[in-house]
Please model this.
Amino acid sequence: MSALELMPILKQHRPFALLSSCGLALLYAELSWASFQFWSARSVTEALTLTGIIVLIAFIGYAISFFVPPMLVRDTWNHPRAWGVLSNVTAWSVGITIVLNVIEFGLLLYLVNFNLVASYNLLRDVYVYTFFAILFFHGLLLYVRYVTFLYQTPEHVQPLKVVAASLGVGLILLFVGGFLFLIDLYHLEQAPATMQGLMGLHVYGRGLYLFTLAIAAYAWHLRWIADH
Model:
């Protein structure tokens, strides 16, 4: 099929993309604050400036990852199935997301003066944020786009498969979220007593915010499927 036939589908869900970019960018605001509190010797003014840059780049980068890949679609993207075109668009989104997080990791390292203890903690956090954005935002958007295409060809719609896929994503969300939260709790228990207050705010604040973002994205996709 011609890739250009899918352009109306690819242009949908822009509010979701914009709100997701804002929500994901705020993760880096919290991470920058925590990094400054735990490891940075920079002044407050320097830290605020770098945090602003980090958050702005995160927002612009995620917005690019949502809005630019559909613009790259050309008639030469011919695939026998719509899935091929949609997955190619998502592959571009994934690539942009990975590049963005490499840049963010470098900026966060600069914020903490390339502290070695901070580096492996930040590497873990940025990796989790990358995985989180790819799976629960770009992944769900790919799924919704594909189901949109299927709804336009009713003979191909298999409701049980749609429901099963949605339930599978929900189970993955709970499993991954629970696993990551346990890791954070372990680090909280290992923190010095004098740092447990700040560490607790970081761990619980970040964990609850991540969970809220994931639930919001999951609820969006469920609501969209139910309405169609």
Notes: Helices lie at 7-10, 14-39, 44-71, 82-111, 116-151, 159-190, 196-227. Residues 3-227 form one domain. The longest helix spans residues 116-151.
